[in-house]
Amino acid sequence: QVQLVESGGGLVQAGGSLRLSCVASGSGDNINSMSWYRQAPGKQRNLVATVTSGGSTNYADSVKGRFTISRDNAKNTVYLQMNSLNPEDTAVYYCKADVTTRSRFPYAVWGRGTQVTVSS
Fold first, then answer.
1. Which of 22, 31, 58, 108 is 20–30 Å from 5 (CA)?
2. 13 with 119: CB under 8 angstroms?
3. Cβ(114)–Cβ(93) under 8 Å?
4. What pLDDT is stored for residue 105 in this prediction?
5. What is the DSSP letter of 84?
6. What is the distance between the alpha carbons of residues 22 and 55, in angstroms, rounded to a whole number?
7. Neighbours of 111 (CB within 10 A)
8. Which among 14, 43, 39, 36 is positioned nearest to 98, based on CA atoms?
9. 8-state DSSP, 98
10. What is the pLDDT of residue 26?
11. What is the pLDDT of residues 18-34, one digit of tens each?
12. What's the rounded Cα separation, in Å, for the pair 115 and 109?
């Protein structure tokens, strides 16, 4: 089964930038879309951005123009470049991969999450 390893979270001042990385490994299954979600304290987990295997992207309205999702298919890695960060971006960020086995059985894999904290 595919496994996800996240990195890049941390503490940053308002207006600053961070880049999150998520590496998928450990399986010969086909990875389709890869996504970033986030969950702030007391709030639901929301989709931030997604990228397909062909490079098509979608973003939540709250991050359009500030965040950029990209992927390196050769490395099975997805990135989230976060610019112009503000305290409302403070959350645990989760990586998710939508996967299909060679038998065409679909499943989803989640990372453990990485904390992003934006100070005022």
1. 58
2. yes
3. yes
4. 94
5. S
6. 16
7. 21
8. 36
9. E
10. 80
11. 999 999 998 788 999 99
12. 19
For β-strands 114-119 and 106-110, DSSP reports them as unpaired
CA of 120: how far to CAs of 8, 13, 54, 103, in Å? 20, 6, 37, 50
Give the model confidence (pLDDT) of 57-94 as tens digits: 999 999 999 999 999 988 889 999 999 999 999 999 99
pLDDT at 74: 85
**CA–CA dist 109, 82 (Å, integer):** 23
Q: Token pair of 114, please? A: 């990485």
Residue carrying the six token digits 């989709």: 47
Measured CA distances, 111 to 7, 96, 114 (Å): 10, 6, 9
- Evaluate whether 48 touches 57 at the Cβ level (below 8 Å): no
Whose tokens are 């990228």? That residue is 51
Amino acid at the residue 42:
G
How much of the chain is in helix, strand and coil states, percent to nearest 5? 5, 60, 40
